[in-house]
Amino acid sequence: xxxxxxxxxxxxxxxxxxxxxxxxxxxxxxxxxxxxxxxxxxxxxxxxxxxxxxxxxxxxxxxxxxxxxxxxxxxxxxxxxxxxxxxxxxxxxxxxxxxxxxxxxxxxxxxxxxxxxxxxxxxxxxxxxxxxxxxxxxxxxxxxxxxxxxxxxxxxxxxxxxxxxxxxxxxxxxxxxxxxxxx
Length: 183
Hints:
Layout (H helix, E strand, L loop, with lengths): L14 H17 L3 E7 L13 E7 L2 H5 L2 H6 L3 E2 L8 E7 L5 E9 L3 H15 L1 H16 L4 H33 L1
């Protein structure tokens, strides 16, 4: 599957959190109470690490049916719906900037989806484990130095992502169990 993401990863840009905040406000206006939460995920959410310059957003939705009813509003705001795009129970939206380059990816799942836990655990693990985040950043920097396109980028970082995701989920579940024990 080919995508329009042509740019390699680049050093962290503080403007990414601003772009997320603007998109979050727009999405909150579109969704209202049908969005339990709107999260900044992916590498652009991790200060100090290299990332492809696309803001990754995760919506915890009360219902996918509610999202589907708002497709026109998403489109008016520049977010183009792509349906499930290969993951059952997901709604995927893309947005391009004024130059026609991809600027945002939005994934939405119902609140009970295990995909939410997976994305948040990965982000939170990297935020809490800076040496792992630095390792991920060095990998992305090396890929950028030998840029062969986005499909190669995904393939070359897949092993790191899969391993770190397993660690992140175990860490997040352990943290949750410890918090329950304290209550």
